[in-house]
Write a structure and sequence with these properties.
73 residues; alpha+beta; three-stranded antiparallel sheet; 2 helices; 41% helix; 29% strand; fungicide; Defensin; plant defense; antimicrobial; DEFL
């Protein structure tokens, strides 16, 4: 019985691997405000302009942040 379950599991695993196809959508990003980042304003602007997710990312130097919008292209 254990052997049967193992074989069944392997067959189903292979079948699902072959059948399932991932269609990943390309992600794009744009800098909305290079001089600073207010998270709530960044999120709102990104959502309104690109229907995306606005995040504060490092601006390069210590302690500086920029508003970056990540969205589906």
């Amino acid at each position: 019985m254990a052997r049967f379950l193992l074989v069944l599991f392997l067959v189903l695993s292979v079948a699902l691997t072959v059948v399932v196809e991932v269609k990943a959508q390309k992600r794009c990003k744009v800098i909305l405000n290079p001089s600073g980042c207010d998270l709530s304003a960044c999120r709102q602007q990104c959502l309104n302009s690109y229907n995306g997710n606005g995040v504060c990312t490092s601006g390069g130097s210590v302690g500086t942040y920029i508003c970056t919008c990540v969205y589906n292209c």
